[in-house]
Amino acid sequence: xxxxxxxxxxxxxxxxxxxxxxxxxxxxxxxxxxxxxxxxxxxxxxxxxxxxxxxxxxxxxxxxxxxxxxxxxxxxxxxxxxxxxxxxxxxxxxxxxxxxxxxxxxxxxxxxxxxxxxxxxxxxxxxxxxxxxxxxxxxxxxxxxxxxxxxxxxxxxxxxxxxxxxxxxxxxxxxxxxxxxxxxxxxxxxxxxxxxx
Length: 197
Description:
five-stranded mixed sheet, Double Stranded RNA Binding Domain
C-alpha cells in the first residue's frame, strides 16, 4: 500500500480549506456537535499526549474510516499537548456575601512539529473561559450545568486544534518555513490562541 505524506496532498487544497475555516471562525460561525471538515486521509498526523483534550481530539479525528498515524515516526505532522489545565474559582460575590457566579477556565499548551522534530508553528496556547450562575439552593442543577459547560469547552478546544492541524498540514505540504512570531488567532470572547510563556 502506498504511504501518504502531507507533501503529496495538493498544497492548494490544504490552503483553501485553512482559509475557509479562518474566514468562518472570524465571522463567529462554528460547527457545533461535530468536528470540522477534515481530509479523509489523516494517516500522516500523530497526536501526542495523555490528556483529556488529546483523547477527545483523537476520537474526533478517527470517526468513520479515518485513522491517525500509530507512531510519531510514521507521521509528517505531530501535535504535542504539552500542558492541559482546568481551573474553577469564584467570579463574583453578591451583596449578601454569597457566591453568585463561578468562572471555569481550560488552558491547553501545544506544539506542532514535523517528523524531524522541527516546529511547523511556534508553541501555542488556547484559553477557554465560561462564567455561570451559582445557585447554592439548587446545587444539583448547577452541577448539571457545569458538566455541560465543561464538555462544551472541551469540544471548543478540539475544534480549534483541528484548525491548527489543517493550517500545519497546509504549511508542511507547501514547505513554508516556520514563522518566528508567536501563534495567535483571535476567537470569540472567552476563547483564543495566545503565545505560550
